[in-house]
Amino acid sequence: MTHTARLTPAPAADRPNWFFPTRPGTAAYRMFLTGTIWMLIGMTYGLLMALYMAHPQVWAYIPLDLQQFLVWGKMRELHVQLVLWYWLSMGSVAGMYFIVPRLCRAPLWSERLAHASVWLWNIAGITTWITISLGMSRGREYAETILPVDVLLLGALLCATLNLVNTVRYRRERPLYVSLWYSLSAVIALPIVIIIGKGLWLNPLNNPYTGIYDNVTNWFFGHNILGMWYTPVGIGLAYFLIPKITKRPIYSHWLSLVGFWTLIFVYPPVGGHHSVTSALPYWLQTEAIMFSIFLFIPVFAAVWNLYKSVQPNTQMLAQDPALAFVVFGLTCYLLTSVQGSIMALRTLNIYEHFSQFTVGHAMLAMGAGFSAIVLAAGYYLIPRVTGHPIYSKALAWWHLALFGLGWVVLLLFLQTAGLVQSANWRVGGQDWMDSTVWPTQPLMWPVAGGGVLIITSHLIYLYNIVRTVYDRSWVPQHAPDPASLPGPTARDPAPAPGSPPAFPPATATD
Amino acid sequence: MLKRVFDGIEGNTGLLVALSLLIFSMAILTTVVLPYFATNHYQPTALAVQYTAQQQRGRQLYAQSGCWECHSQNVRLPESSIGTIHQAGDIGAVSHPGDYVYQNPTFFGQHRRGPDLMHVATRWPSEEWMMIHFLNPERLNPGTWMPSFGYLSEENLDALSAYLMTLK
Q1: How far is A24 from chain B (nearest CA, A)?
Q2: Cα separations (Å) of B119 from A250, A421, B162, B165?
């Protein structure tokens, strides 16, 4: 007679909630990976656009029913919206979900709320994709999305804002590192920018602004999502990544403060430089141009500070792909900022505005600059969240090489095409097709080629990351360095001293 | 002294956020609030149109089909005599704030992959030309970037033409 039959069954272990896991870091990780999928979708639209501009006749082979979803205007709206709001924003928020708890020496205020923001963000992305494909657009650049998307996106964003602000409020590290300043200002300013810029408080269903005031608010929105969101988050991430990777403090704390305060003072009023020499009030244009030139101060302060922080460890640029990505991104940020400030001047703006030069400028900032910084954050955070070392450093180098080469080729030819258009337009007297369309079409083939390189690099990257995440080969060899793992929480308390380490985690990837 | 002030700010999250918002609100004041009062008094010019239902529908289609992504409606001062669509200077008169009074949204545009349409009705060849150009622009301008809008119904294309006719 055994006692076995009388034993009550052991209580079933709580099944982890797959939709809203609580393991620290999982939200950052999921936000980043889903953002990567959106990046590939958005960039595929970009590639289609480049092919279209190189040889528009190919569209005749697409069935008419399908063509309506691949009309140039809709493709561009989708490309811009998906890449900005669903790749770069999600990547940036993922970066903040990772760095803010570390800089605060505290867990994220609520991992579940962070997961709610991941779900909302992705649902908003799908909604954007469907609504814009069907032609539901507000007809305002960068602010095309309609109310359901705005509600979902603001919901996701406010979840992130609440979470990050509370993480900072309940921090254990009293001094606020400069990355936290940037992150906080970004998550607080963006909802304000969206609500004012779209006039959601006046009329959520329709655009409440008429006449040229519509253009004023449109570019308050359009430029401040760059200046008050992507720039501070990207610079904040760079301020975190460079000292962490090189294991040296930043060059100058004082300079980082100068960079921060001048950025939030100088960046917000520059929206009017999108409509220079138009019917906008002259003083408003001048104000925008003036502040665009002032932008040299925060840009040079931040970039100089970060370059000088890398300088003692320049050799690491050839050793760590993540660091190389950050520095590539910073260089693109420097180039695009110098370009942008000068492009705002009336003399040059009259010349180059409306051409493909402006398109290249925007892509240099978002696609090459801040995307590279966010990708570096991904290379930094994924091994630390999952506990798996990067699958292949060689593939990471290939990613950087093809990404960098792709951007150089793409931008060189796209901006050259813009200059050709500008020069021909300036002369006048030629038919539109002769002056601006035909001469630039051959230049669009290399642009598409650059796009192929960039997308190839991201496919390599995705393969590398998927292999990293699902890699189990490391398990018997080495456990990750505990110091590099997320801190303890109430739900996942630190093991008592002396107890055996609990690695590997039961579900390392959730 | 300055260092003490900065250390005080750095240790106080609330103060930091409040100061940032204060600085940000200065931009809101000068680029959102003041322009509202500076731009709400324009008298409509002869070009400003109070749209009929059909024209309004055409405007909506203009926004939804993404026409405004490639066609600006913004003639700038320096190009008034040189800007060329077909003949020198036929881009039209310089845009005036009063032209846009009834427009919501305005289609200033940031790009010109196609020509400016601020005064497209003044160089309007014919209704038939326009229809062919909507349905198969390639036939009229080989190599053009303008896509075919053949997926729009005839009624919608009429509305679009009716709207474009208001751009004199």
Answers
A1: 24
A2: 55, 21, 14, 9
Within a domain: A32: yes
Separation of alpha carbons B147 and A270, rounded Å: 34
User: Which B residues 61-100 touch A at CB under 8 Å?
Assistant: 62-70, 72, 74, 76-79, 82-86, 88-89, 95-97, 99-100
**pLDDT at residue number A477:** 54
Q: Does B37 touch chain A (CB under 8 A)?
A: no
Mutate to test the interface with B, among A432, A440, A441, A443 (most CBs of B within 10 A): A432
Tell me: pLDDT of B95 over 90: yes
CB pairs under 8 A between A and B: 238
- B89/A73 touch (CB, cutoff 8 Å), yes or no: no
Please state the rounded mean pLDDT for residues B20-38. Answer: 93
Asked if residue A27 lies in contact with residue A442, where contact means CB atoms within 8 angstroms, the answer is: no
Sequence ranges of chain B with CATH classification 1.10.760.10:
53-165
Contact B150 A67 (CB under 8 A): yes
Contact at CB, A52 and B145, closer than 8 angstroms = yes
pLDDT digits (tens, 9 = 90+) for B104-130: 899 999 999 999 999 999 988 787 888
What ipTM was reported for this prediction?
Answer: 0.94
B114 vs A contacts (CB less than 8 Å): 432
Q: What is the pLDDT of residue A509?
A: 45
How many folded domains does chain A comprise? 1
Structural domain boundaries enclosing A171: 21-55+68-175
Q: Do B17 and A271 touch (CB under 8 A)?
A: no
DSSP-derived secondary structure letter, A144: -
According to CATH, the superfamily of the domain at B53-165 is Cytochrome c-like domain (1.10.760.10)
Transcribe A277-335 into DSSP letters.
Answer: TSSS-HHHHHHHHHHHHHTHHHHHHHHHHHHHHHGGGGGGGGT-HHHHHHHHHHHHHHH
Closest residue of chain B to A272, computed from CA coordinates: B31
Mean pLDDT by 10 residues, chain A (510 residues): 56 77 90 96 96 94 90 95 96 97 93 96 97 93 93 96 94 89 94 94 88 94 95 97 94 93 94 92 95 96 97 94 97 96 94 94 96 96 89 95 97 96 89 93 96 97 92 59 58 62 48
Nearest 5°: the CA angle B122, B124, B125 is 140
| pTM higher than the cut 0.95 | no
Residue B145: what pLDDT? 94
